[in-house]
Design goal:
Elements (H helix, E strand, L loop, with lengths): L1 H9 L3 H18 L5 H22 L2 H5 L9 H13 L1 H11 L4 H13 L1 H18 L2 H21 L8 E3 L12 E3 H5 L1 H10 L5
Antiparallel strand pairs: 1-2
Length: 205
């Protein structure tokens, strides 16, 4: 869906889509330090970066101020919330690397404790985009997004591919769409992309 969104914005023909697929594959292979899962994740992350900037560039200042299809937020709040999914990912990766080396019951207990805090989490989750919508300009949001995206890619590059199979239990009450009961590190790298895709439909045009 992420690639389809980008190609729809560019008005891509089927031939263009095929050529773009070849280019993406070539770019991935040229980085060459890993194969398989890491290459696929790297490609997905780059597609999500392009999709975020395509979305932000497609919204005028007036569009950003419009009420979104989420009654609590404007379009800008939605875009900030999407970006926050990437902002928190480096921390989620480090936490998963820790719990992935510990006995599984420990992460299950941790997830249960986090589920208990669902109500305050929801308050913070709702408040964050309002604060971010005030703090961030279009330019600062774009630059901050790219900074965090680069950190995510750096982490992916240094993590051994076999570590992508490690995982931990997650608080599914926090986000039933994105979170699964047990998530591998590979799953966790995909959280912000799934989060972006989910909220994309809430942007009002």
């Amino acid at each position: 869906m992420m690639i389809d969104f980008l190609e729809q914005k560019k008005g891509c023909t089927p031939a263009c889509k095929q050529e773009n697929s070849k280019e993406r594959h070539g770019e991935t292979m040229s980085k060459g330090k890993s194969t398989g899962r890491k290459d696929l994740l790297r490609s997905e992350l780059e597609s999500s970066r392009l999709a975020f900037h395509t979305l932000l560039d497609s919204l005028s200042d007036a569009d950003l101020k419009k009420k979104s299809h989420n009654a609590a937020w404007t379009n800008k709040h939605i875009v900030v919330h999407m970006a926050m999914g990437f902002f928190i990912l480096p921390s989620l990766i480090l936490i998963a690397l820790l719990f992935g080396r510990l006995p599984k019951p420990l992460s299950k207990l941790f997830a249960l404790l986090l589920n208990v805090t669902t109500i305050p989490f929801n308050w913070i989750n709702a408040l964050g985009p309002h604060i971010g919508g005030t703090v961030f300009t279009r330019t600062s949001l774009s630059k901050t997004f790219d900074w965090f995206h680069a950190r995510i890619v750096q982490l992916l590059n240094i993590i051994p591919e076999e570590d992508l199979k490690r995982g931990m239990y997650y608080p599914t009450k926090w986000d039933s769409f994105t979170f699964k009961d047990y998530m591998t590190l590979e799953d966790i790298f995909r959280i912000p992309t799934l989060h972006f895709t989910f909220h994309l439909e809430q942007i009002a045009r």
